[in-house]
């Protein structure tokens, strides 16, 4: 199956809102699978053992996307589902979002709970660092010194920048290229160097690309 690019969060992040004297602590975590989500959730419940509720939702980068939501004792559909809807609206995957509630003595009603949980989830996702996971070919290129300056200018104009460079008998250039663009990338090098280059695709993996949240 072809690997698809996706958006996710780079690191855990936390925000907090106070709504009618209740504390709503929002947290987001990058995850790889359901087991990791369960482990984090258990640890947070232990950390916040005095909290009234620890509601959650997660979405995995699978086809179709696997997802799960928990109201953790809040009225059905007022907590986990609103959190999940925010995650899906942001189109992020491999993420776990938790909203920890400390009850402040004032009941919010179903509508108020939905707004509180979705608002807290949106707050933490609005302020965390989001990255694009781009499935890429990791390519090592070797060229002669005589080709270096001209090739670098051509590649820069096309939007390609090496992840690393080395200088020995020849110039070594390491690139992280989106898989679907590899053919065009190599054709550009071939044309610019008149075919005087060597290359190897050493692996395929996801690469973090900055994304404006």
Word description of this protein:
- This protein is α+β, with helices and mostly antiparallel strands and 213 residues long.
- Helix 2 packs parallel to helix 3 and helix 4 crosses helix 5.
- The chain has two domains: 123 residues, Impact, N-terminal domain (Ribosomal Protein S5, domain 2, 2-Layer Sandwich), CATH 3.30.230.30; 73 residues, Alpha-Beta Plaits (2-Layer Sandwich).
- The strands form two sheets. Strands 1, 7, 8, 9 and 10 form a five-stranded antiparallel β-sheet that branches.
- The chain contains five helices and ten strands.
Q: Can you give the helix content as a percent range? A: 25-40%
Order of helices and strands: EEEHEEHEHEHEEHE
- What is the structural class? alpha+beta
Radius of gyration, CA atoms, in whole angstroms: 23 Å
Number of helices: 5
Low-confidence stretches: none
**Mean pLDDT score:** 94
**What is the CATH topology of the largest domain?**
Ribosomal Protein S5, domain 2
The first-level CATH class of the largest domain is given as Alpha Beta
Characterize the overall form.
Answer: elongated
CATH superfamily of the largest domain: Impact, N-terminal domain
Number of strands: 10
Beta-strand content estimate: 35-45%
**Biggest β-sheet strands, sense, barrel:** 5 strands, antiparallel
Domain UPF0029: 141-196
Domain Impact N-terminal: 20-125
Organism: Eubacterium limosum
Protein name: IMPACT family member YigZ
